[in-house]
Structure formats: structure tokens, C-alpha cells
Amino acid sequence: MLSHEEKIKRIKKKKKIFIVAALIIIGVLILTTVVLLILSAVRYNVERRAREERENAAIALRGTLLFPDPNWELNIFEDEYYMGLDRGIWVRDGIMRTVIGEDTWDNYPEYIQFMHGVVQLMIHGDHYTYGDLFMDEYWEDPRNRANWWELGFTMQRLWNIELEIIDETPSSVDVRLTYRIHRNDGTLRDDIRSSRISGEQESLPMLYRLVRDDDGDIRILNKFVHVFGAQEDF
Known about the structure:
Low-confidence stretches: 57-63, 195-199, 229-234
Shape: elongated
Helix content: 25-40%
Structural class: alpha+beta
CATH architecture of the largest domain: Roll
Order of helices and strands: HHEEHHHHEEEE
Largest sheet: 6 strands, mixed
Number of domains: 2
Strand order of the largest sheet: 2-1-3-4-5-6
Number of helices: 6
Number of strands: 6
């Protein structure tokens, strides 16, 4: 049977242990927060430098490319050669690759369905609706106001199209869009080479960062040229 003094000592000892444990937990939380802030700052600087490098490379490339005069009246669906190309929109998931169709539409996440719509807007030359999909913050940066923002772009003969979710966080989803443009006229993409003879060109993927706005609708927060083998983040 413990005496009254021993009980008081035991209670005080438990309180000390509890206080020490609480202080340790608080210290760990503070340290974790500081580390996360430092990592976030480092990531931001890395992303900013990577973006600047990509932008500088794209600007240097644009100065060397020549494009045919755009035909604003052209109906690309009357181009038999283009219609014979692989115009399906494929989705990559690891080593698996499937094409989106009416019978498989519900198998794909909402963000992939959204990007399917983005591709269709490009193909149909609907730059008004395409531009409305971007968050206001995107247009506040003058560097994002490409030529098509004011002049529009023609119907785009996209083919060899592929979508792939690269990264997912609670606040955003990154989707890589890869495609080729048959006989690119430069109104949408002035950073892709196009052969004067065949009209074919290299593929220069774009990485789209998708978020939800205050109404819960998916919108485009930003997009960047994405180079395979380079850092995925932006």
C-alpha cells in the first residue's frame, strides 16, 4: 500500500513523463514543418530554373522554324491522308496502352476524360473554349499569352495522341499529352519542327497541371513543354 506522499510523487513523475513526451512530439512536428518548408523552397527553385531553361530552349527553337501560311477555312476531315493516320486518343498506364472509345469511356478517370476534351478542342480549332479551360492565374503571366491567345489557331491535324497521368496529389493532377501534328502551321504549336516534304515532325509533349476551381470543375492551372528523361516536376 503506497503512502500519500509516494502517490503524489508517482503522479508528478507521470506528469513529467507526459510533458516530456508532449514536448518531444511538438519538437518533431516543428522540425518536420521546417524540413517540409525547406524542401518546398528548394523544389520551387528547381522547378523555376527548369521552366526557364525549357522556355529559353523553346524560344531559341522558334526562331529557326518556318511554317506555311495558315488556312483558316481548311476542314482537316477532308484531308484523306490525315484521316488515314492513327487519330485515336490512347491512354498509357505503365506498360499498358488502351484507346478511348464509346464503350470504354467510363473506364477512365475524370481527369483523362477532361484531357480527351482538350484534345478535341485542339483538333477542331476551338481556341475560345480551350482558353476558357485555363485558370485566371495562368493568363496573368504575360509569358503564357501565346499567339493563339489573341489570333486563335486553326484546326489541328493531331495524330499519334497519348495521355498519361504522371503525378497525383490531393490538390492537383499532372497529365502528359503527347501528339504529332500533320502539316503543322504553327498557330497552336510554334515549337515543333515540321518536314517541308512529308509534313511530319518530332513529338514535343506537354505537361498539364489540372486542378479544381471553387465550383469543383476541372481547370488547367498550368502547362509546360515536357522532355522525356528530364525532371517530371514543374
